[in-house]
Amino acid sequence: MADPVLSLRGVTAGYGPTHVLRDIDLDLGRGERLAVIGRNGAGKTTLLATIMGLSTLHAGKIELRGRGIARLAPFRRNALGLGLVPQTRDIFPSLSVEENLIAAQRGDATLEEAYALFPRLKERRRNGGVQLSGGEQQMLAIARTLMTRPDVILLDEPLEGLAPVICAMLMQSFEDLAKDGTRSVVLVEQHARAALAFADRAILMSNGAIVHSGPAAELADRPDLLHRHVGVGQTPKGDA
Amino acid sequence: MRNLILPLACLLAAVAAFFVFPYDLAFLTRIVIMIVFVLSIDLVLGYAGIPTLGQAAMYGSGAYAAGLFSIHVWGDPLAGLAVGALAGAAIAALSGLVVMRARGLTLIMLTIAVAAILHELANRARGLTGGADGLRGIRVDPVLGLFEFDFIGRTGYWYALAVAVAVFVLLAVIVRSPFGLSLRGIHESPARMTAIGASVYWRQITAYVIGGAVAGIAGALAAQITQLVSLEVFAFALSAEAVIMLILGGTGRLTGAVIGTTLFMTVEHIAAANDPFNWLFVIGALVLAVVFFLPAGLIALPRALTGLIVDKGGRDADRT
């Protein structure tokens, strides 16, 4: 890939002395939508944590727009344009929706942009984080990350535990996020069908390594691979 | 608008106190100065979640800096306040770079250690600080060149009150800003703030420095109004009492700091006057009562009472 916005070379990482990721090579283009799929424990969340600087990097290089970021603290990576929406959502329950957003506000980011993406949040802007449903918390987590003005958004299992109608709403919001082609989106997801439908390209992870990389549509037509590494059905468009 | 009712009521009470207790202005001024000091701890402990028992380090530095400034350089009170703020901020910045790398009990011990070191330095530098005899000879010019400090303490009271209001407004703006809200996020979960890309360390240091500047202002006020700085400005008891005042009023709420300080000092004043030997019993009972029945502090009293009334009303309705 010519001139990737994010590049990982020979990355081995984990938590403390434990190695979770092994020799990861990965490029992400500007405006690209990348799906990362795999079973529980495959290393998907660790991959995002490593990109964000929240795990222990044992070996390898991580570059953002050609600049090495492997030694930078998470907040510096965030300032350079990386934004993580954590799997645990990490809403601050004692802060209202609006306060959660303002707490992350950076530069010229405005509340109106966040509310335009998720009008539901505007309706609930005075409510405490603890009073939100799971779907609303996920919307808030995504909107809060957008308040830091990232151009690479790392979404860690954003559909986990949510009703199908909320999942559809969130998938539409991911489309809105990526539609202008300036933001790159990495979507880690166990809902393989939804992730592959969204992404341009997909990687399949197993035991901390990338076992397949290619166009998302191509992987969607490989039920054998999906069944072996994700556990989805044998049908070409099967899902877990 | 609703958020302004309580602070405005406190301000009105402070103004009324001037006329109702004209012979207790020295005591009232002490309360106001202490409020400024406790506000600084509220920012550091209540908002940023930095457990400290050494805020007196910044208070004392501000007091000595303002005192020395007025003796050797210039007696202007506002310039003295600025010097006190700078001294408090500088000590907080220097110590914060180390202290903020620690967590929990270690952090608390380090904050105490910083105050203890400064206490001993001030004691040793007798030629400069007066040592155990205290820093004397502080002369303060009229406020804005117009209002001379008088023996009764009228000017001192209004001056301290104006500074306290300014500090309160400044802190109210800060805690509502993105920075202030991120401090609350850090207080709630440093790990979560890190995950969304915030620098917990630098934001805590910034809060500590701002808190240090405010504590320095409180110290400078005390030095200017009492015209004396003793080694007690670095005392552990001062930091600890201020934390108790904050807990009484309610942490993480600026008005809580005002209410807690006023109540603590008033009860202490009355109890100590009535029973000089056992007054601490009253303070202890007060703290226990608040911790058990109002863990969020006195600031939560109206909501607790409303809850009781609503609850009782609901139960009565169930019976009928």
**Number of domain units of chain A:** 1
Beta strands of chain B, count: 0
Low-confidence stretches of chain B are: none
- Give a count of the beta strands of chain A, DSSP E runs of length 2 or more: 10
Mean pLDDT of chain B: 93
Assign the CATH class of chain A: Alpha Beta
CATH superfamily of chain A: P-loop containing nucleotide triphosphate hydrolases
- Within the CATH hierarchy, at the fold level, what is the topology of chain B? ABC transporter involved in vitamin B12 uptake, BtuC
Compute the separation of the termini of chain B in Å.
38 Å
Separation of the first and last Cα atoms of chain A: 31 Å
How would you briefly describe this protein structure?
The complex is a heterodimer of chains A (240) and B (320). Chain A has 240 residues and is of the alpha/beta class.
Report on the architecture of this protein.
The complex is a heterodimer of chains A (240) and B (320). Chain A has 240 residues and is an alpha/beta fold. Chain A has one domain: 3-Layer(aba) Sandwich (Rossmann fold), CATH 3.40.50.300. Chain A is 34% helix and 27% strand. Chain A is globular, with a radius of gyration of 17 Å. In chain B, helix 7 packs across helix 8. Chain B contains 14 helices and no strands. With 320 residues, chain B is mainly alpha-helical. Chain B has a single domain, classed as Orthogonal Bundle (ABC transporter involved in vitamin B12 uptake, BtuC), CATH 1.10.3470. Chains A and B meet through helix 2, strand 6 and helix 3 of A and helix 8 and helix 9 of B.
